[in-house]
Amino acid sequence: MVGRRAQVLDAAVRVLGGQGTRALTHRAVDSEGALPAGTTSNYFRTREALLAGILGYLFERETAAFVALAGQPRPVSVDELAGRFGAMLRQLAGPARLLTLARHAIFLEAAHHESLRVPLLEWSERLWTWSADWLAAVGSPQPVLHARQLLAFGDGLLIDRLARGGDDEFAPEEALAALLESWVKSVEGPVDN
User: Fold this and answer.
1) Which of 31, 50, 75, 171 fits 81 for a cystine, CB–CB 3.0-4.6 Å?
2) What local confidence, expressed as pLDDT, does residue 185 receive?
3) Is residue 32 part of a domain?
4) Residue 96 in domain
C-alpha cells in the first residue's frame, strides 16, 4: 500500500496505538499525519470505515510478518518453535508496539461491530492454519485446537507486557516451551522406568 491512503492509515495506527480508541478521530489522524484537514474523511467517511481501513492495514502488516515466519523451514523441536514464536512476540512488544496496541484496540471494537468481526475471523483462520502446520511438525496431537490456544496465549503475554510494562527483558520462550511441551507430552503417555 502506497500513497496518501497509506499515510492516512499509518497515522491512524499511531493515534489508535498511542492514544486509544477515544482519541481516534478524523481530525486527530490528519494532525498526526501532518495531512491537510479533511484528508482522512476523504478516504474514510465514517469512523467505522476508518476502523475497517485500519483493520485491513493491520492485516497486511502482520500477514507479511507471518508469511516471512511461515516461509522458514518447519521447526523440528518444541524449543525451536518456542524460540521463533518468542522472537515474534518480542518484535510485537518492542519495535511494533504501536501496531500491536492498535490491533488489540481493533479486537475490542470487533466485539461490538459485526463489520469488523467477520474479516477478523477470516484473518484469524489463516493464522491458525499456518500455526497448526508448525504445531503438527513438532508433535501436537491437536494442531488446529492448539494453534488457536497458542495464539491466544501469545496475545495474553503481549497484553500483559504492554499493559504492565516492566524493565526486565521480555523473554516469553520459557513459558511458550512449557506450554508446547505439555501438549506434546500428553500424547507420549507415562514413561516406564
Assistant:
1) 75
2) 85
3) no
4) yes
Per the structure, the count of domains in the chain is 1
Does 75 fall in a domain?
yes
Residue 162, class by beta-carbon neighbours within 10 Å (0-12 exposed, 13-18 middle, 19+ buried)? Answer: middle
Q: How far apart are CA 140 and CA 34, in angstroms?
A: 49
CA angle 91, 87, 123 (to 5 degrees): 70
Comparing CA positions, the residue from 17, 10, 6 lying closest to residue 106 is 17
Taking the CB of residue 170, how many other CB atoms lie within 10 A of it?
17
Q: Is residue 26 part of a domain?
A: no
Question: 25-40 in b/e burial notation, b at 16+ Cβ within 10 A?
Answer: ebebbbebbebeeebb
CATH code: domain of residue 110: 1.10.357.10
Range of the domain at 120: 56-187
Q: List all residues 6 or more positions away from 144 whose beta carbon is below 8 Å from its beta carbon.
A: 128, 132
pTM (two decimals): 0.85
Of 100, 81, 99, the closest CA to residue 157 belongs to 100
Burial of 80 (0-12, 13-18, 19+ CB in 10 A): middle
pLDDT digits (tens, 9 = 90+) for 42-98: 999 999 999 999 999 998 888 777 777 767 888 899 999 999 999 989 989 999 999
